[in-house]
Design a protein that fits this description.
- The protein has 218 residues and is mainly α.
- It folds into 2 domains: 86 residues, Orthogonal Bundle (Endonuclease Iii, domain 2), CATH 1.10.1670.10; 113 residues, Endonuclease III, domain 1, CATH 1.10.340.
- Helix content is 61%, strand content 0%.
- It has 12 helices and no strands.
- α3 packs across α4 and α10 packs across α12.
- The structure holds iron/sulfur cluster.
């Protein structure tokens, strides 16, 4: 796919997505502009629907919006604040532990490099890239299940895992689109190019799409 085709996909999705609600982490980023809030919302969001993440993040960040305040909370209080997020007990302990590390190693700040973020227990490439891009405005490509699926359907990449998709995208995606690529494809994936039966017959980027692996569509 040529750089012009990629640019057309990005510009088309920017306009098309205006009708949909933005992803939760984008919303948190716009509201709070805090790497810590992005980190917490992303940790809560793993395997959890956006609506649940939205409410859970608001409840928890209202109680504690810094690592220092978070470690003052008993773990059951964190559990209660983020319930019914998936794996809320595991996540509550993880959030508590990460905040202790942030205090011990980073004076209560959030590190701004992928390498340092990946050293935090329970932080994978998806979370680290989201903190880098949405929290710090630095270059990165966050690949979640939507970005992985749609990039493969389009034929932009041919990969088996999100991590491999990230590495392939780093080679072919113009850097000017790295930060917003996640936001655009997550919104599009939640609402239009859905996992089962995507809406290909009314898709604004169908002329660019090879529909790889799509067996049923609307
Ligand atoms: Fe997704 Fe279908 Fe559009 Fe391709 S044509 S991007 S598979 S909805």
């Amino acid at each position: 796919m040529s750089p012009e085709d990629i640019r057309d996909i990005i510009e088309t999705l920017r306009a098309f997505n205006r009708r949909f609600q933005e992803p939760i982490v984008t919303e948190v980023s716009r509201e709070r502009r805090s790497p810590f809030a992005i980190l917490i919302a992303t940790l809560i969001s793993l395997r959890t629907k956006d609506d649940v993440t939205r409410a859970a993040s608001r409840r928890l960040l209202a109680l504690a919006d810094t690592p220092e305040k978070m470690v003052q909370l008993p773990i059951p209080a964190i559990e209660k604040a983020i319930y019914p997020a998936g794996f809320y007990k595991t996540k509550a302990k993880r959030i508590h532990d990460i905040c202790e590390t942030l205090i011990q190693k980073y004076q209560g700040g959030v590190p701004d490099t992928l390498e340092a973020l990946l050293e935090l227990k329970g932080v994978g490439r998806k979370t680290a890239n989201l903190v880098i891009t949405q929290g710090f405005g630095k270059l990165g490509i966050c690949v979640d299940t939507h970005v992985h699926r749609i990039s493969n359907r389009l034929g932009l990449v041919q990969t088996k895992t999100p991590d491999k998709t990230e590495m392939s995208l780093r080679k072919i995606l113009p850097k000017e689109f790295w930060i917003e690529y996640n936001d655009l494809l997550v919104t599009f994936g939640q609402n239009h190019c859905t996992p089962l039966s995507p809406r290909c017959s009314s898709c604004p980027i169908t002329s660019h799409c090879r529909k790889i692996g799509v067996e049923r569509f609307r």
